[in-house]
User: Fold this.
Amino acid sequence: MVGYIIRRLLYMIPILLGVALLVFTLFTTVGEDPVRIALGNHASPEAITELRSKWGLNQPLHLQFLDFLKQIITFDYGRSFNTGEKLSALFAQGALVSLSLTLPPFLLAVMLNVSMALVVAYYRGSIFDRFATAFFIMAMSISYLVYIIAFQYILAFQFDLFPINGYEAGFRAIPYLVLPGIIIIFVSMGPDVRMYRTVFLDEIKSDYVRTARSKGAAEPRVLFKHILKNAMIPILTYTVVAIPFLVLGAFLMERFFSIPGIGDLMINAINTGDFPVLKGLTMYIAIGYSIFNLITDILYAYVDPRVKLD
Amino acid sequence: MSTQVANNSLGRRALQKLLRQKLTVICFVVIIIYLSIALLGALNLLPDFQARVGESYEPPSLSIAKIFGTDIFGRSVLFKLLAGTKTAISIGFLVTSIAVPIGITLGSLAGYYGGKIDGFVVWLFSVIVSVPYLLMVIAISYVLGKGMLSMCIAMGSIGWVGLCRLIRAEFLKHKEREYVLAARLLGANDYNLIFKQILPNVLHLAIITASLQVLGAIKSEVILTYLGVGVQDGSSWGSMISDATGELVNGHWWPLAGVVITMFFIIYALNVVGDALRDALDPKLVD
Assistant:
């Protein structure tokens, strides 16, 4: 087990090196020139040279890449081109906002969607099941953007139930986060319930279900006691891997509702060529993704004794 | 004997199964209608969406051009939707035709040869999935210059990962099967084993993935265009939706209604057909 974890952690090195190389190539060598974006098209050559050396862009590429690798190892990505703020502070602040936007709806959505999928799976093949399936496919056929626009327009603008957009620090943020949260839960329903339902139906075909039934276990007991426990394995995998991306926030939400989270930071950085922000964010998310993947595999082996880690 | 086997092939059974489902057939027809609109657009036979047909923001009325009303410049919303259909379908197909061949090739090579090739492919897709999808797509589109083609290349150059994983896993299983060993004993070379023996047995995965890929590309286009990457001349559903935020507040609901309806039918149809294809082609579900 320990050997496995060490090997997996070592395998993260080539992957993160690959991500670093990819990000570096995309943003440094072929992307738009951040100095041009910052100073506009009419800047004097002296000003351009000065900013270039201040941002370390006048060094040869391999040295810039080595610098980037040093930043990754020390978790210090320097300062934002735009604001001059330290990135660690910027990220910590943004991550807190994004997590308070995405984490509560994410947890609620998992519980809600798993319960709904259980109910639908319990009534499998009935009119109710077919109606629910049809409804979810229809709900999935409307663009995410349309839901945001419609919910914002109807609930916030017409009925004035929530603030249209904006954000305040601390607990006063809550009113601003409710409507985006509702939309996140609503949009997750279609794909998630459908997927969990498939997971449950796969389990229902297993031998242990037949055994449980032939022992005389009632259908609800089979469903909640036996099937739910086994189905938690794929559900767990699906859920845990999604966690690092929560930090990224629902950046469309952040844009529509003017919430200053990581997603908003990222889109602004893309539009202004703020490469330190993009490079730092990408590396953080890539590291988070690798670690949570590993956690999933360990949890997998923990909840399912049939899985051996080697 | 051989004809009997052919008549019972997976493809034929799948087709029979699909044709028995009324909803699936209707959805096929819907997809064909959208494809025809896109084809007309490619041949420049669609009405010009840039032309003024009336006043600014006329509500829907009973004439063909104004059935969904007009936009801020007095252009027909319907004509814009038709142009958007061409854009969306082109994007769907372009992305799929980039992603699917890459996915099949890398997936089969990695699964079949194993070793260093497999190590490289696994490393490559592990790197790609570690970076947030939209960040990658936006970054690549910026590098290639804004516009439809670069957006499609960006989506396609990432979209192969899912299919590649599926194909690789199937190849790992199939290359040990008896029919492959038998072919190998008969002297079949690697090319023959990969493309003639194993690939036909896993190709249904590509068909299912492709139908989902078209759908995903259409949905992503809308979001990317809203974020400022992608189609810039207004002939896209995405730009119509992003205009709609301001229009709704002023009571101009019809451009948004038009896009929602137009998008709904094609995405719904692709969803239903994708599901039906999976049910029909996945041998594990054949009963």
Remarks:
- Residues 2-281 of chain B form a domain with the MetI-like fold fold (CATH 1.10.3720.10).
- The mean pLDDT of chain B is 86.
- Chain B touches chain A through 39 residues (CB under 8 Å).
- Chain B has one domain: 2-281.
